[in-house]
Amino acid sequence: MQKLSESDLIINPDGSIYHLNLLPEDIADTVITVGDLDRVGEISKHFDSIELKKGKREFITHTGYLGKKRITVLSTGIGTDNIDIVLNELDALVNIDFQSREIKKELKSLTIIRIGTSGAIQADLPMGTILAATHGVGFDALMQYYYHQVSGDEHSLLDGIKAHFSHIKGIHPYITGADQLLLETIGKEMAQGITATAPGFYAPQGRQVRAKNAVPDFIGQLNSFSQDKHRITNLEMETAGIYALAKTLGHKALSVNAILASRVKFEFSKEPNKIVEKAIKMVLERL
Ligand code: R1P
């Protein structure tokens, strides 16, 4: 088997992976990802014990136990460019032998659960909603750089979404479904819908501040899409990349969104931390 070169897979002198700064034994099979560094401690404070705290740049990791379950919580920072790093390095930690630099014969499938914040784009989704993403539709460019398999209902949804947004130049949406079992277990009793992932926070999410927005009424274009029982419910910046790369690499993923804002009612929650805490508790109870 071919060895991965020192520039394709960068391993630090202490044997840790380049950005995450983690050793293979540092991560659990269940990984919770969050955007905000401070949210790592907000999750690990619920653990019965914490065995490890490490970090580098925006990638802070705590690994510990909740009852008998070993869990890693890791901050990704913002955006699918960071998700590219996090998903590839998590996969390398479990599926590449760092001594031989070869891909292992038996591949491991991680369970990856994002607990993130998000804005609703449908009027019937109030702030405070906890929403599990049935699919992630990406308006960013990440998956143009990977072979990405689309299967089952994703094909027809992708065709519908491409047709709906075909008048916007330069975007090539991609779509991936959540892991079905995680959606049915962790996502039970949560609102559900397609989560749209944007490559920015302002104009790429339809916000108009001072720079002139070249895509008029992006929110209206997102929330007017519907096909069968599916509609786009919310906007954030990581889900589509997590779902697509997790599937490409053979991992299971679910994105749980704490809805802090209504983009159609022009509201932002006065108690965002309470909503995030509700999402954290719902996920931890179901793990
Ligand atoms: C933008 O403010 C950030 O918040 C949302 C978006 O996806 C983006 O990362 O998620 P997090 O709260 O998990 O970072």
UniProtKB/TrEMBL annotation:
<dbReference type="GO" id="GO:0005829">
    <property type="term" value="C:cytosol"/>
</dbReference>
<dbReference type="GO" id="GO:0006218">
    <property type="term" value="P:uridine catabolic process"/>
</dbReference>
<protein>
    <submittedName>
        <fullName>Uridine phosphorylase</fullName>
    </submittedName>
</protein>
<dbReference type="Pfam" id="PF01048">
    <property type="entry name" value="PNP_UDP_1"/>
</dbReference>
<dbReference type="InterPro" id="IPR000845">
    <property type="entry name" value="Nucleoside_phosphorylase_d"/>
</dbReference>
<dbReference type="InterPro" id="IPR035994">
    <property type="entry name" value="Nucleoside_phosphorylase_sf"/>
</dbReference>
<dbReference type="GO" id="GO:0004850">
    <property type="term" value="F:uridine phosphorylase activity"/>
</dbReference>
<feature type="domain" description="Nucleoside phosphorylase">
    <location>
        <begin position="31"/>
        <end position="283"/>
    </location>
</feature>
